[in-house]
Design a protein that fits this description.
two-stranded antiparallel ribbon, about 20% strand, alpha/beta, globular
């Protein structure tokens, strides 16, 4: 597969994705700085997330929507946290333009159809389906209908769920599909990453495989290359 004419596959250097997530901390200038540092560090791409709090959760104070652990977010609602963490939609075009000026690819993980529409208006070169959206088949279908390269994180999905996501994407028109082995823990323990899963994903589903690495250091990501990892995504700040 190709993203912005960059060949991605087992015969090429791993495609390195710097995941910005919410690390912009509500500042577009910090977001630009992260893009600049990713470019300087040699990343192939920066990935952002496209959602609004109302498209990803409910504005509710019931127990299901409250953080009940003893961490920094204790007692806060999911809506409040997503409102604080999300990237304002009016930032998207300036950031896409800035990345283009620097010569680094930028794309995003959409969380609903309106996010896909925004990204299409910006002519995004690719899409990423986040781990928790792998069972959102209507979203995958809508993204795949753009016929752009599609990267899917596996997270906690089982074999049949991964298979169903891939088939949905193919049926909707996607031909360039990559699946990332991912442990849905923040941070993740390296011993929980069974790196043989990467080669298994590639053989079992006949797709390009890679890793979304949530560990603190780079050992897991580097080691994954020996198991056929063609894409490596790491949170970047």
């Amino acid at each position: 597969m190709k993203i912005n004419n960059r060949e991605i596959g087992i015969d090429f250097p791993p495609y390195i994705i710097a995941e910005m997530s919410a690390n912009h901390n509500g500042s577009i200038e910090k977001a630009k700085q992260i893009i600049n540092e990713a470019k300087n560090a040699g990343a192939d791409a920066v990935k952002i997330q496209t959602y609004k709090p109302e498209t990803i959760t409910l504005n509710s104070t019931s127990s299901d929507f409250l953080i009940d652990d003893n961490g920094l977010w204790h007692g806060r609602t999911l809506f409040d946290l997503y409102d604080e963490a999300h990237m304002p939609w009016e930032w998207h075009k300036p950031l896409f333009d800035y990345a283009k000026e620097l010569g680094i690819t930028i794309f995003s993980s959409p969380f609903d159809k309106t996010a896909v529409d925004l990204l299409e208006d910006l002519n995004t070169p690719a899409y990423k389906i986040a781990s928790f959206e792998i069972i959102d088949l209507p979203l995958i279908e809508y993204v795949a209908s753009t016929k752009k390269p599609l990267i899917i994180s596996s997270g906690m999905a089982n074999k049949s769920e991964i298979e169903e996501a891939i088939q949905t994407a193919k049926d909707a028109g996607a031909s360039d599909i990559a699946v990332l082995h991912c442990v849905s823990s923040y941070p993740a323990d390296p011993e929980d990453y069974n790196l043989m899963t990467i080669s298994d994903i590639s053989k079992r589903f006949d797709v390009i495989a890679g890793i979304s690495d949530h560990t603190i250091n780079n050992v897991t990501a580097i080691s994954s290359i020996g198991f056929g990892s063609c894409l490596i995504e790491k949170h970047f700040t």
